[in-house]
Amino acid sequence: MARPLRIEYPGAFYHVTARGNEQKDIFKSRGDREQFLSYLESASERYGAVIHVYCLLGNHYHLLLETPAGNLAQIMRHIGGAYTTYFNVKRKRAGHLFQGRYKAILVDKDAYALELSRYIHLNPVRAGIVPRPEEYAWSSYRPYTGLASVPSWLATDFVLGFLGGSGATGYRQFVNDSLGRECESPMKEVVASTILGDSDFVAKIAQRHLAQRTADRNVPAIRRLNRPTLDQIIAVVAGELGTSGKLARNLSIYCCHRHSGGRLREIGERFGLSDAAIAQASRRLRVAAESDEKVRSLIERVVRRLCS
Predict the structure, then answer these.
(1) Sign of the CA dihedral running 254, 260, 265, 270
(2) How far apart are the C-alpha atoms of 137 and 134, rounded to whole Å?
(3) What is the pTM assigned to this prediction?
(4) pLDDT tens-digit readout, 152-209
(5) 228-307: which CATH number, 1.10.1750.10, 3.90.1150.10, 3.30.1490.20, 1.10.10.10?
């Protein structure tokens, strides 16, 4: 199994999850949950973790946290290690509590923090544990909506700031708007199982934090993240064909679809087309290349330049 890619830097923002080994419960009592929350508090005090959102379910947890010191690994060793020791001592057991390492998705907080907070707070509803999020005691939803006091270690201001001055009332309405309807998970937009953000954010992270990690070059996530941006692809195609003409546009669409790692919606917005139209245009050029040597040669030249 490929090892997970960890990207750490000061101010990084993450969605973190961890599950029980063999999907067994990691929280079996009120005391367990209170103890885990105490480790979130000590992670804040000792290591500077900024805990924005949490939700503790039976066999896993979700956190939305920020690392001003760029020390995610240290924070998670403290939380996971301390809780495992507590759980094992209390139940006279030994061995792993969690299923492998925690999963940490690096997040573009300005674009996704608000939506992710709702996604996390609605987990107990989606799981059928409660009909409404305010009925679940072990998430940060109640503090966010004024139904419980806000712990000193829980940072609610950043997420609530996206709603202007409406505060707890506005947040409650924002979450309620999703009740009773199917909403697409923001986690479906994660790139290379590592980053949640648009192509510009992904490219910035790859350039600043991955380009020099030669020892990790064969990690699949790094290979996927070190892809050309939409701008780079369009510029290379323009160098071959200019900026006008149907072939230049279709080749740009094809290469953006096949080689940027960008989502269909993002590429569609760039070219003023729907998701389906992007996929169709890309397929048409691929089919044309199968029978047209000129088109096939052109694609190969562009791809070589993108990979050089």
Answers:
(1) negative
(2) 7
(3) 0.73
(4) 999 999 999 999 888 999 999 999 998 878 777 888 888 878 899 987 888 888 888 8
(5) 1.10.1750.10
